[in-house]
Amino acid sequence: MGTRPVRPAHSAAEVLARLDDRLPDGPTDPVAVIDALVEAVDGGLTATGSPAFFGYVIGGTLPAALAADVLAVVWDQNAALASLSPAASAVESVAGRWVTQLLGLPSHVSVGFTTGTQMAHVTALAAARHRVLADAGWDVEADGLLGAPPVRVLAGADRHATVDAALRLLGLGRRAVVPVATDGLGRMRPDALRAALAGGAPPSHTHPGHAAGPGRAAAARPTIVITQVGEVNTGAADPLAEICALAHEHGGWVHVDGAFGLWAAVSGSPARRALVAGAAQADSWATDGHKWLNVPYDCGIALVADPAAHRGAMAAPAVYFPPDGAGQLDPVDWTPEFSRRARAFAVYAALRSLGRAGLRELVDRCCDLADHAAHRLAAVPGLSVLNATDGPAAPGGLVPLNQVLLRVDGPARRPGCARADIPSRGYPDPAVAGDRLTREVTAAVTAGGEAYLTGTTWRGQAAMRLSVSNWATTLADVDRAVDVIAAAVAARRAGGAGDAR
Ligand SMILES: Cc1ncc(COP(=O)(O)O)c(C=O)c1O
User: Fold this and answer.
1) Could you tell me if the CB of 335 is within 6 A of ligand 1?
2) Mutate-to-test residue for ligand 1 from 232, 240, 276, 405, highest number of ligand atoms within 8 A of CB
3) How confident is the model at residue 411 (pLDDT cuts 50, 70, 90)?
4) What is the per-residue pLDDT across 99-154, written as a single tens digit (0 to 9) for each?
5) How remote is the CA of residue 34 from the centroid of ligand 1, in Å?
6) Does residue 384 lie in a domain region?
7) How many Å apart are CA 290 and CA 294, to the nearest integer?
């Protein structure tokens, strides 16, 4: 995609300095406004749509999705009500149904189009909160949480930060979470979940128990289990079938964070599809359009198998809403927002332009490219692939999905010094040196402008991630990124690593 660097040329402070920040008293010609805006922000744009952007987990933009999203802006539809935008309502109905089918979820799920997975969590977990408290005889929408039976939340120790933020926003609080132990790839351990479900203090309240929802036993106490497919660093997936069965035995509601990983459901590889086996047994799911589906920002999707709980948690009927009459979807009932943009136009266009086969090809190509990168990078001296899988992967596959987690190794210790915890004089602590080298390589690759990587921390140590999520990324883009990474590793290891202590 062109020759401009993938990274921005200017920092936010530099863009701010170029931007005219004086609030104008009078009007300015619209063309002049746009010219000035483009000029001021140009160097502050990151080419996140570039096929050489491998940072975070960020998709590109499919041409049809881009055009549809531009139209959503041009048409300026408020998607809240079917009567206000029949078009937005109809397109959301179809796009929601298509996503449900592609992800292999039950046909009756209700769907809300949110800003991202963060708000999809808020939406779905509000439905979960509604149901588990209703089952305990508590109407949380009417009475709030003061005096409510405590809700316990069990979630993997490697859950995404947005889960905690959602629980905070819903008034459940971060401390409601019982962290469940995970394995080396960040997958929730079913034995640890079993123990956590069985353990803990019994509830002190005396609210009457109610029958649980479909598929769930009556709950001894309101319980939500949050699981994930597609750990942001490793791409690994929790064993969903086992987790759903265990949680449902205890009357728990299962929510799946599948921001990108849920799309493994469309893969042509049985091993990749195995990553999401059991997903349909959960009670709610959160995923993104703006990651692997390659629609423009912003687009998340909340799906809930209990539409009454979903609507009960979200609907905000106003006296001035006209009844649509034809029973069509009022999107306002399914997301936290009242007014909002017509996000589903882009989802509809993306899916229509790809079809099932195109989406399958997109997902598998990204995984194959990530795997190709992992194989090549594993052969680079001094570089380790931290998320080499021991579970299902495509035949010959090295990493579970589309993420490659890397670390630059620190130099070996002085021969004869067996104690890894004692830095020996003149020799660097390998862990500290590895952290430093890893951060330097990440920064050097991105600064070079040919590829964009982001750093992370994995098991307490610095790491860097290469995420292949863009429909336009080719083998040549990945090979170039691998070459750049290998060169940066070689350069850093050759010079100066010895001073790291
Ligand atoms: C597993 C997981 N959950 C949640 C999120 C948050 O998604 P969003 O940025 O769309 O809110 C991400 C983002 O990368 C993610 O990888």
Assistant:
1) no
2) 232
3) confident
4) 999 999 999 999 999 999 999 999 999 999 999 999 999 999 999 999 999 999 99
5) 32
6) no
7) 5
- Residue whose CA is at the smallest distance from ligand 1 atom 7: 117
CA dist 240 and 254 (Å) reads 9
Q: What total number of domains does the chain contain?
A: 1
Own/partner long-range contacts of 332-337 (Cβ < 8 Å, ≥24 apart): 332/80, 332/81, 334/110, 334/111, 334/112, 334/123, 334/302, 334/310, 335/112, 335/113, 335/114, 335/119, 335/123, 335/302, 336/114, 336/119, 336/122, 336/123, 336/126, 337/80, 337/114
Distance 80 CA to ligand 1 centre (A): 24
- 210 pLDDT above the threshold of 80: no
Structural domain containing residue 261: 64-204+219-349
Give residues with Cβ within 8 angstroms of 36, minimum separation 6: 20
Residue whose CA lies nearest to ligand 1 atom number 12: 259
CATH at 226: 3.40.640.10
Beta bridge partners of 154: 178, 225
Global confidence as pTM = 0.93
Going by alpha carbons, the residue nearest to atom 10 of ligand 1 is 116
CA of 287 to the centre of ligand 1 (A): 8
Residue 101 lies in a domain: yes
